[in-house]
What does this fold into?
Amino acid sequence: MDKLNIDQHISQQYNSALDDLKTEFLELGGIVEQQIVNAVKAITDVDTVLAQEVLMTEKEVDEREMQLDDLCTQIIARRQPTASDLRLVMAISKSTRDLERIGDEANKIAKMAIAISDSEDLPHGFSELRNLGRHVQEIVNDSLTAFARYDIDMALKVVNKDKEIDREYATAMRELITYMMEDPRNISRSMNVIWALRSLERIGDHASNISEQIFYLVKGLDVRHQTPDEMAQQVNKQRK
Amino acid sequence: MDKLNIDQHISQQYNSALDDLKTEFLELGGIVEQQIVNAVKAITDVDTVLAQEVLMTEKEVDEREMQLDDLCTQIIARRQPTASDLRLVMAISKSTRDLERIGDEANKIAKMAIAISDSEDLPHGFSELRNLGRHVQEIVNDSLTAFARYDIDMALKVVNKDKEIDREYATAMRELITYMMEDPRNISRSMNVIWALRSLERIGDHASNISEQIFYLVKGLDVRHQTPDEMAQQVNKQRK
Amino acid sequence: MTKPEIKTIDKVNRTLGKRYRAEKRFRLYGMLSIGFGLLCVLFLFTNIIGKGLSGFTYHYLQISVEMDATTLEISDTSDLNQILAGNYSAVVKRGAYEYFDVSSRRDKSAARKLLSVDGTGYLLQDRFKVDAKEIINTKSMVWALVDDKVDFYLKRLGEPGEPGKHEFSEKQLQWIHAAVESGDLQKRFNWAFFNNGDSAHSEEAGIRGAVMGSFYLLLVTLALSFPIGIATAIYLEEYAPKNKWTDLIEVNINNLAAVPSIIFGLLGLAIFLAFFGFPRSTPLVGGFVLTLMTLPTIIISSRASIKAVPPSIREAAYGLGSSKMQVTLHHVLPLAMPGMLTGTIIGLAQALGESAPLLMIGMAAFIPEVPTGVSDPATALPMQIFQWFRNADAGFSEKASAAILVLLMFLIVMNTLAVWARRRLERRW
Amino acid sequence: MSMSMLFLVMLVGVAATFYFCRQRSLSLASELGGIRHLHSLPVFYGVQAALWCAIPCLLIFGLWVVFDDAIIRELTLQYLTEEQRSLSANELQLLLSTIESITTGSSTVNDPQLIAISQHIVDFRSVSNLALSITVVCSLVGLSFWAWFKLKPENKARSNVERCFMLFLLLCSTLAIFTTVGIVFSVIFESIRFFQIVPIQEFIFGTQWSPQLSIRADQVGSSGAFGAVPLFTGTLLISAIAMLVAVPTGLMTAIYLSEYASSRVRSVVKPILEILAGIPTVVYGFFAALTIAPMIKNGLHGLGLDIAFLGVSIGPLEVSGESALAAGLVMGVMIIPFVSSLSDDVINAVPQSLRDGAYGLGSTQSETIKKVIFPAALPGIVGAILLAVSRAIGETMIVVMAVGTAAKLTFNPLESVTTVTVQMTTLLIGDHEFDSAKTLAAFALGLVLFIITLGLNFIALNIVKKYREQYD
Amino acid sequence: MNNSVTTESIAPLASEKTPEKAKTSNVITEENSDAYTTVGQAFSENAKMSMRNVNVFYDEKQAIYDVNLDIGTNEVVAMIGPSGCGKSTFLRCLNRMNDTIDTCKVTGKFLLEDQDINDRKMDVVPLRARVGMVFQKPNPFPKSIYDNVAYGARIHGLADRKSDLDDIVETSLQKAGLWNEVKDRLQQPGTSLSGGQQQRLCIARTIAVSPEVILMDEPCSALDPIATARIEELIDELSQNYTIAIVTHSMQQAARVSHRTAYFHLGKLIEVNETEKVFTNPDHGLTEAYITGRFG
Amino acid sequence: MNNSVTTESIAPLASEKTPEKAKTSNVITEENSDAYTTVGQAFSENAKMSMRNVNVFYDEKQAIYDVNLDIGTNEVVAMIGPSGCGKSTFLRCLNRMNDTIDTCKVTGKFLLEDQDINDRKMDVVPLRARVGMVFQKPNPFPKSIYDNVAYGARIHGLADRKSDLDDIVETSLQKAGLWNEVKDRLQQPGTSLSGGQQQRLCIARTIAVSPEVILMDEPCSALDPIATARIEELIDELSQNYTIAIVTHSMQQAARVSHRTAYFHLGKLIEVNETEKVFTNPDHGLTEAYITGRFG
Ligand SMILES: Nc1ncnc2c1ncn2[C@@H]1O[C@H](COP(=O)(O)OP(=O)(O)OP(=O)(O)O)[C@@H](O)[C@H]1O
Ligand SMILES: Nc1ncnc2c1ncn2[C@@H]1O[C@H](COP(=O)(O)OP(=O)(O)OP(=O)(O)O)[C@@H](O)[C@H]1O
Ligand SMILES: [Mg+2]
Ligand SMILES: [Mg+2]
Ligand SMILES: O=P([O-])([O-])[O-]
It folds into this structure.
C-alpha cells in the first residue's frame, strides 16, 4: 500500500498548511458527494425541496473552491513545495476544479429535478437515473477515499468503474431516445432526464480525473488520457 | 492598458521558460481554435474528412496539455515563482485544462459530424450551429488574445459575450426540441446536433473561464463565479 | 571543439620543466635562510656558554687561618660593628705566608699576590657574621680565593701561547703548580658570584646586586605598566570614540613602540632626574623609564588580544542589555587576559634585557651594595654585564659571560612562563 | 600611624563600606520584591559607595603628602635667623638639606640651633602625620555613613560606577601622549641651546666630529667640532650591513616557514629563531665585540686578502678591531627574527582563499608565493623592513660595545666608524653639566634620531595599517 | 484599507505597472526621491512598536529615508530588500544597537508601547532587555550552556535565588526547543554545539530576559537548510508570545515565517503588506521586480 | 533506464516509501551501510569525468563512501546534501585540491576523459589548468582586474604576445558577462568590485586558462539574491561550453541551475537524477525527505 507522509516536515506550520489543504479538499469532496446524493434523490423522488437544498450549497462549493485554490497558491508562494508536497498541491489544485465541476453537475441535476417536478407523471428513465446515480456517487466516494489514502489500486478501480458507468450511460441514453421517439410529447421532459444522465456521466468522468491525479500524486505519473490497462501497466512497471 | 513583463528576469533561462510556457499555451490555444473551426465546419458542411482531421489532433492536444502541466510543475519546482510569475503559471495551469476541454468538445462535435453524415438530408439546427460556432470561435480567439495581451477589458468582453452565447444556445435548444417533437424519427440525429450545440456552449464557458484567469493573472483577482458586472466593478475598484 | 583545449594543455606542458626548476631553487633559498638562522643561534649559544660557564667556577687555595682576635681587632664578638670592621686581611695574609712558607718580604709579597686577600677576608667576615663566637681564636682550614690572574692562568692552561703565564715569576709558578698537584689549589663552584655585589676586584665581584636591582626594576615596571597598559588598551578598543584625539593616542602609542630605547633614556635623564629630581641610579626611576618603554608593547599586545575577541560576542552582550563596563569585564577581559598576560611577560622580558635607557640614567654606576628597596641605588643585570665588559681587567670578561648566562636563564624562564601562560590560560571553547 | 598602616585602614574601611552598602541594597531589594526592582545590581551600590569613600580619602591623602613637606618647610623657616633667611636660594637649600640630614640622623653636624630646628621638624612631622590619620579616618567613616544613608533603590549606581571606570581608563590612556610630549620636551630645549652654541648647518653638514676637544668650557672657540655627517654615515653603514643580512634571510625564512615547512618543522624552528629576538642587545654587543670582531680581523688577515680597488692595489687590507662589519653582521642577525616574524604575520594575513585561488588555477607553490602572496603582502613587508631599519638606526648597545668612537667618514665596512647612539652614550655617561656643548650635543643627536625614527615609523606604520585594512 | 499609507502614491500600482514604468522606478535615487509614500499596510491597530519618520545617517550618508512602520503585537514582520538597502540599519535602531556606531545618527520617533526609545536620555540597558536581538552568526558566549542562558538574567537581576535562575534557564531552553538536546550537558561550553543549536541557544539566551520584542538580523544565513528549517519553526512558535522583527536575505524565508513583509529599497520602505499579498500580488512594481528576480 | 545503478537498491523506491521506512532510512549510519547502491542515473554515456569507487578519508575518519558518478560533457551537475555530508570533499577531489590537506587520503578512480587524475604520479599543475575551480568566497587576487584574468594564462605560458593576452582577457571577461562592466577600468584592483562582480571575475579568471571542467563550491553563498541570480545565469551560459560541477547549500539553486542533481548523505551518494525528476519525484526516500524539509 502506498503512503505519502505530508506531516513530517520540520516546520509544523507547513505540516498544518498541507494538512489543512487536504482536509479542506476532502471536506469539499464530502459536500459535493452529498450534493450528488441529494440531487439524484431529488430527481428520482421528485423532491423539489431537496433540489433547492442542493442549489443552496452551490455558493459554498464555489467559495470553497476559490479558497482551496488560494491555499494552493499561497503554499506555493510561501513554501516552495517540491517532490511529493508539490505533487500534492498540484493534484489538489487540479482536483478541486473537478470537485467544483461535480458540484455544478449536481446542481444541474437538481435544476432538472425542479424542472421535471412540474408534471405529475414520472418520465421514463428514472430507474436508470437512480442506478447511474448510485454508481456515480460510489465512484466519487471511492475516488475521494483513494485520495485520502493515497491508494492507487483504488484509484485504478475508480477509473475502471467509470468506463462501466460510461457504458451504462450509453445504454440509458439509447433507451431514453427510444422513449422519446415513442412519446414525442414528452421530449422536453425527457431531455431533462437526458441532461441529468449526462451530468451523472460527467461526474463519473470527474471522479476518474481525480483518480488520475492520485497516480500523479503518489507516483509522479501523469496517466491522463490513458486507458485503465495502460495505467495499470505503467504503475506495475514502476513498482518493479 | 495593463501589461506584465515576464521577460525581464535576471535569469534568461527563467525568462525563456516562462516564455515557452506562454507560447506553448497559446499554441495549444491556436490548435484547439482550429479544432473548433474545423469541427463546426465539418458538421455544417457534413465533411467527415475534416471531422477525422479534428479527431486526429486530439492526441496532440492531450500531449500538449500534459506537457504544459509538466512545464508548470517544473517551473514551480525549479524556479519557485512568486507574484506575477506565479500567477502566470497558475493561470496557465488552470487554463490549460480549459483548452484541453475545448479540444474535447471540438472532438465531440467532430464525432457528431461523423454520426450525422450517415443520413443524406440535413438535420435541423445547422444554421444555429453555424452561428453559435462562429461566435464561440470568436470568443475563444478573443480570450486567447486577451491572455496574450494581458488585456482585462477584452477578457471582460469575452465574459459578456459568453452570456450572449448562453442565451443563443438556449434559443437554439428550444428550437431544436421543437423540431424533435415535430419529427420524432429524427430524434437521434437531432440529439447529435443538440450535443454539438451543447459542446459549443461549453466551449464558450471554457473561454470565459480562461478570461477569468486573465483577471487573476493581471490583477491577482479571483473573479470566478461572479457576474460580469461584479467583475467590472472589482477591477474598477482596484484601479482607483 | 577540443582543438583549442589540446593546444592549451600542450602549452602548459611545454613550460612545465622550467617552472619546476624555479620551484626547486626557490625552496632551496628558503632552506638556506633557515639554516643560516639556526647556525647563528647555535654559534651564539655555544660561544657564550663556552665563555660563560667557567665564570661559575673559581680556583681556591686551601690554607689554614689563625682567627686571632687581636689580629682581627675584634674584642667583643657580639658587636656587629666590630665584626664588620675586623681586619680579616691580616689573618688571611698570615695564613698565606704560612702555606707557602715564606719569610722574606719579596716572597711574602709574591705569595700574597697569588691570593685575593680582601676577597677571602669577606668570606671570613661572612662566617664571622654567622658564628663569630665559635670560630674566634681557632685555627681552621679556609678555601681562600686565589688572585684572578691565577685563576685566569689555570683556566687556560692547555691553550696555545700560555695566556697569563707572563704575569708570574718562576717561583710563583712553582708554587701554583705545587699547590695544584697537592690538591690544595682547586677549581670549585663560585658561590661568591651569586652572593656578592659588584666589586672592583673581579674575584669578589658577584651579580647579587644586579639581580636584586633588576628585580626591583621589574617590580616597579610591572606594578605600573600592567594596570596602565591594560586600562589604556581597554579604553582605546572599547570606549574611545573614533576621533582625532584617539587617533592621536593611537599614533603616539605605535610610534613610541618603535622609538629607540636610548631616547627613553634621554627622557628619564631630562624629566625624572633633571626636572623632578629623583635620585639617580635607583630602580624607581629605572622602573619609570622602563614602564614608559614597555607600555606600548603591553598596550599593543593587549589591544591585539582585545581585538581578537570576536565582535559578535560584544554584540551579543550589548544585545542582552549589558552595559559597556559589563561587556568589558564579563566578556572581553576574560577572553583577552591570556594574550594580555603573555604580552606583559614579553614586555617585562624586554625590559629585563634592556640597557640603553638605564645607561642614560646612571644605572651603569659602580654600586657594590646590594639594594634593599626601590629607592636604593642599584644597577641591573645588563648594566652589570656592560660594566664588566668595559672593565679591562681580564677576570671581568669571564664574569660578564657568566652574567649573560644568568640573564639568558631569566629570559628563558620568563618566555617559558609566557608560553605556558598562553597555553594554560587560553580557554579553547 | 605609619603610611602603610593608614593605607591598610583605608583599604579595610572601603571594603567594609562596599560590603555593608551591598547588603543594604539587597535588603532594600527584598523589601521591594526582588533585585529586579532596583535600578542596578547590588554590587554596583557597593562599588559606588566604596568609590565615594575611597576617592575623597585618596585625594586628601595625596594632597597632604604632596604639600606637607612644603608647609613644614615654610614653618621651619620661621626658626631660622634673619641672616640665614636672607641667604641665596642655593645656600638656603643647602642649609635645609643639612637640617634634613640631621633629622634622619645621617649627619653629625653639632650646631645646637640646627639640632633644635630639626627637632621642630620632627615634631611637625608627627603632628602632620597624626592630623592626616585623623582626617582620613574621619572622612572615611563619615563618607561611608553618608553613602549608607544616601543609598536608594533608584540611585543610578551603575551609571556612576561606569563613569568612574571610564574616567580611570581615559586617564591611563593619555599617558602615551604625555610620554611623547615628555620626549619632545626633554630633547628640544637642550637641543635649542646646543644650536645656539653650534650653528645648525654646521651640525648637519659638518664632516668633523670631535667633541672631546673641548677641554675647558671657558676656552673660547675650542668647543670641539660638531659636524654630525660622519655619525650619520657610520649609522647608515652599519644599518645597511644589518639590513643586507636580515632582510633576505628573514624574508625567506618567513616564506619557507609559512608556506613550505610542515607544521612540525615550523613548531621547532620558529621558537628557536625567536630566541634570537629575545636575546638582550647587550649580549649581542658582547658577542660582536669579543667574538665576531676578532674573527673578522683574524680571518681576513689570515687570508692575507689583497683588495684591488679600481685596478689599484691598495695593499693588504686594514681591518679595524672595531669594524663596522662586525657590528652590522651581529645587528643583522639580531634583526632576522624581527623581519621574519613581522613578515610572517603579514604573509599569514594573506587569506587562504588567495592561495586556494592560485592553486586552483594550477600555480606551483613558488609561483603562488612570488606572484600572489608576495605582491599581496608587499606593503606589509615594506612596512616591516622600514620598522627594522628604524630599529637598526636606533640600536645602541651593540654599537656601543662593538664600534669605536672614532668619527671617520668612510663607507669601508672594515674600518672603524661611530654612530649617533654611540656618541650619545659617550657624551652622556658619567657626570655632566647641562650647559657644555658636549652634553647638549647628545640631546641634539637624540633629537635627530627621534625625528628620523619617528618619520620611518610613521611611514612604516601607515603602510602596515593600510595593508591590514585591505583584508579586514 | 483605512490604514493604508497609499493615498497618492508615487509608486505605480500593479495596474499601472508597465515595463517602462518599472524601469524608471528602479532608479529611485537620492536626488529624485525625497518625497515618497510607502505602499500597503504600514500601520497596525495593535502596534507593539511604532516607528515614525525615521531617518538614519552614517556621517553625511543617509541610509534610511523617512520610514514609517508599525509592528503589531505578536506579529512577525520580515524585512527584505537588496543588499545595502538599510534593513539591518533599521532593525538595529529598534534597540539602539546603532549607538555603538559613532557615526550613526538616528532621528524620528520610535515608540515601544508608549515610550520613545530614541530619546537620548533613555537608558539603553533596560531597553535592550525589553527588545532582544539575535544576530546573523550564532554568537554564544564562551561559557557553559547554562551560563549563556543565565547571563542576561544575572545582569538584569531577574533571579534572586539559584533556583529562580535554574527555572529561567530551563524554560528558556524549552521555549527555544533546545532543552531536550542539552539538558544533560548544561555545563558544556555553548560553543560545542552545532551551528543550528548555537543559534537556538542564542535565542534561548534572548528569551531568558523575557523581552517583549525580538529582533533577528539574518538569523539563518550562516546555517544549513535543516538548521534553518528548525529556526524558522522556532520563530513560528515564538510568535505566539513575542513580537518579532526579522531581516532576511532569503525571500523564501520571509515568505515562510512572516505575517507581514516590508520591502526596503535604497533606504526607503517601498511596501509593507500581508506576506501572502506581497508574494502573490505585491502592490508596488519594485517589490514585484525584487521578489520575482527581475532586478538590474 | 539501462544506465541506472538501481538494480537491487536497498533504498526504498518511491512506491515503498512509508513513514516508517523513511524514518529508518534516515539513520543510515556508518555501521549498517557498508553496502549501498546509488539510486537513479549516476552514469552518463557522454562522460567528461568518471569517478569510480571513490573513498575519502581524513585520517581514520571516512568522509566519502564508495561513490560512483559520471559528469557528462557540457553538463551541470549539482551536489546537494546536509552539512558535512562530504559534498565539498568530493568536489575537491576532482582537481586534487585535497592534496593540500595532509590528512586527506583519496582512493578510487577519477577519469578525466581517459586519464586517471588520482594517480599520485600525475602532475596537478596541468590538471588544475584543465579542471578549474571557483570558491565559496570571491577571492580575486589583490591585483588589477586585467592581471587577475591574465594570471593563469601567464603562469601557464598560454599567450606568446601581449595581444594574445589581451584577447584572452577580453574573451574571458566577456564569457563571464563582466566585460561591459569593467572594460573601462581594467587597471583597477579586482577587490574594488562588488561581491557579485568579484565572483564573476573569479569565474573569468578560471575560464581564462580554458579549462574543460569548472568546479564550484557554493559559489553564491556569500552573495545576495541579485548577485546570486546573475551567477546562476552565468552558469547557465557557461554550460554551453564547459562541464560544470557545483556544490550548493540551496536546493532551489540546484533546481535552477543544474541538469542533474546528486544527493549526498553522510558521505554516500544516495541518488543522482535529472534535476526535474529529483525535485518533482525523487526515487529515494532520503532525497525526498531532504528536499521537502522533512529531516530530523
Ligand atoms: N557602520 C557604517 N558606516 C557607514 N555606512 C554604513 C555602516 N553600516 C552600514 N552602512 C551603509 O548603510 C547602508 C545600509 O546598510 P545596512 O547594513 O543596513 O544594509 P542591509 O540592508 O542590512 O544590507 P545587507 O543585506 O547586506 O545586510 C549601506 O549603504 C551601507 O553601506
Ligand atoms: N580538513 C579536514 N579534516 C578532517 N575532517 C574534515 C576535514 N574537512 C572536512 N572534514 C570532515 O569531512 C566531512 C565532510 O566534509 P565536507 O566539508 O566535505 O562537507 P560538506 O558537505 O561540504 O559540508 P558543508 O555543506 O558544511 O560545506 C565532515 O564530516 C567534516 O567534518
Ligand atoms: Mg544586513
Ligand atoms: Mg562544503
Ligand atoms: O465541465 P465539463 O466541460 O468538463 O463537463
In short: Chain A has one domain: 12-239. The pocket of phosphate ion (ligand 5) is lined by residues A 101, 202; B 101, 202 (CB under 6 Å). Chain A touches chain E through twelve residues (CB under 8 Å).
